[in-house]
Automatic annotation (TrEMBL), chains A, B:
Residues 255-265 have a biased composition (Low complexity). Keywords: DNA-binding, Transcription, Transcription regulation. This is GntR C-terminal domain-containing protein. Residues 123-235 form the GntR C-terminal domain. Residues 266-275 have a biased composition (Basic and acidic residues). It comes from the Bacteria. Residues 252-275 are annotated as: Disordered. It comes from Sphingobium cupriresistens LL01. One of its GO terms (molecular function) is DNA binding. Pfam families: FCD.
């Protein structure tokens, strides 16, 4: 049961994501080899030697071009490194955290995903992450959040730079993600932040002193709910943060449209003047 | 405001995802070059020539080793292809859908994410995707879903293979994702399905004729809600599907634990017999 989306369909619907292609690459020898090499890598540890080219060719009973084509795919998944020369051969590698969140975030940007869309999905995910974080018992992470909470007043008094606000926001999200102990939530949070940073739009909570104050106040209540282990309140504050961002995005959009109309009117005036 | 997570911390908390590293790579010349090359690629179209090595070296005022190091990073993000020889130079490329969902799904597997965790996040995302899909007005996608709905009875009567059930499920999810018109939801759905397939655990809705019947019946109601444009019902059925999967996962887990205990008891019997 495949859908009939051809090349034209893909062009028409830019956000078509062919999941069949995503997991299968068809049923060819190359795709089978991709799966096998992926398995070899996953069964080994990062850095382990998987064998020389000759050894893998014999073990898998495939041709050299097939192996090389498949190896390229698994290399692009960052699960394999092929080294030439002395000590050459196939080695297991692991994708870096950067790689794992960067390509989805870039893909979203290429699909013209909006901050609105990202915030809508975040509003679904973040409150649950907060509620799970409230159940965390890891003393190291609890100490980190306690330190983060303690620094908020000082940050507010000092009037930190935009870069510092951003770094704090990232550290905070990362901490909540790690405290949730859930890799799926952690992955989503990583992608959402990376996307936000690519968009460079995360300035909305600095646009006025009122917003900044409100945002830091929400950070305080969020920290307090998580540190007191109250999952219900943590979920509630998580939702409140989402709604706050939603309304700021809407406000900023309305303001930008008004500016756009004002600019267009000015241009028309000028045209009128020219004729 | 960076957290103090060092190498040891990363090892202790396997799901630490360093978002600072993820977006910045520090403030070095290489990382600045990575950002610039990424910009060049994003501003161009897939396949566009960005210039020769010599041209880029001059344009960016950097050294050859810096350019080559940065190019490797951008190549691994699938945004750049460096070709040698005649017509050599730097070309803009785009990540494939496969690449975009495969590495996060693999990362989740490496982090030992569970089907439970994936389903919990899916329960947050899928209902909203269904509700958005119900607002879709694209005649091609509506026709596809109509055809999918019409085929369910035939699939049930025929007793399709496991592979066919899986392909249908993927096509269905992909269709809902595309109908939602939201790249963020589409990305999440892609990752969740690829993860499920990697885990090869998506057999739970085939484990008994009752489950299979229930699953197809939910597919029917989901299709009907979306096709009738009823977002509220679509959201409700989306939630119901999630709860159903949740309870099946719990049932299967309990059964596996019982089997585990039975097997352990058997082994002990054998040990008792041997002494």
């Amino acid at each position: 049961m495949r859908n009939g989306t051809g090349k034209d369909g893909m062009l028409a619907m830019t956000n078509d994501l062919d999941l069949n292609e995503a997991v299968e690459l068809g049923g060819s020898v190359v795709s089978r080899t991709v799966r096998q090499l992926t398995q070899f890598s996953l069964q080994a540890q990062d850095g382990d030697y998987l064998g020389s080219e000759a050894e893998l060719l014999e073990r898998m009973s495939i041709s050299r071009p097939t192996l090389r084509q498949a190896a390229k795919v698994v290399e692009s998944d960052c699960l394999l490194s092929v080294r030439r020369g002395v000590n050459g051969g196939f080695y297991a590698t692991r994708p870096s955290a950067r790689h794992v969140v960067q390509s989805p975030a870039l893909w979203l940007r290429l699909q013209s995903a909006t901050l609105d869309q990202m915030n809508r999905a975040s509003m679904l995910i973040y409150p649950t992450a907060g509620a799970e974080a409230a159940k965390c018992t890891d003393p190291r992470l609890i100490a980190e959040l306690t330190a983060f909470r303690a620094a908020i007043d000082e940050r507010e008094a000092r009037g930190e730079s935009q870069r510092e606000t951003l770094d704090a926001e990232i550290a905070f999200s990362q901490l909540i993600a790690n405290m949730s102990g859930d890799p799926v939530l952690t992955l989503f949070i990583g992608i959402s932040y990376t996307f936000g940073l690519l968009e460079r739009e995360y300035r909305f909570y600095r646009r006025s002193p009122q917003r900044r104050q409100r945002w830091l106040s929400l950070q305080r209540s969020y920290c307090d709910a998580i540190l007191s282990g109250d999952s219900d309140i943590a979920m509630l504050i998580g939702k409140r943060r989402g709604h706050q961002v939603e309304s700021w995005i809407a406000e900023d959009k309305a303001a930008a449209q008004q500016e756009g109309r004002a600019a267009a009117a000015k241009t028309e005036d000028r045209h009128d003047g020219a004729t």
